[in-house]
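The instructor's notes for this session suggest beginning with a concrete chain rather than abstract definitions. Hand out the sequence below and ask the class to guess, before any prediction is shown, which regions might be ordered.
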Amino acid sequence: MMHNHAGDDYDCPFCKLVRGEDDDGDWTKQSEIFLRTEHIAAFVSPLWYPNNNGHVIIIPTKHIENIYTLPRELGGHMLEAAKYISIAFREIYEATGTSLRQHNEPDGFQHIFHYHMEVFPRYKEDRLYSYVRHGRMTSVKEREPYTNKMRTYFEQKYSGKEK
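After discussion, reveal the predicted structure:
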């Protein structure tokens, strides 16, 4: 595989999530996936930055390590989900902007070797990129209100539709 860093014995936490398994501890649980299609799953990230609570991670349901082998069609599904999540942030988080972020390989700041895209709610002078080293892990309970808001939004806005 092109530019892959996970070994054959890599126990991918995102693949576990897609398969319906929960990790131990306060990592992402099945109950936190608020958007799932044949191609993608989305959940509120457990790592938060000071002024951007509730940002979302979108993952493909198929294991792909990084952008180098991401099929074009799947990239389209990822971006479409990012679009709808960005709209949701504007409507329910009252965000005044959004940012997308995606990393590849250890030197590109990729820590989980499963392609994923982060969508951030943005606010005037939130200094997201100044705080990139100031993230903190959150609990399932702390993320719950954000997960519930996103789930309710998507159920009401897009029920019965492929997102």
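Then share the key points. Residues 72-92 form the longest helix (21 residues). The mean pLDDT is 92.
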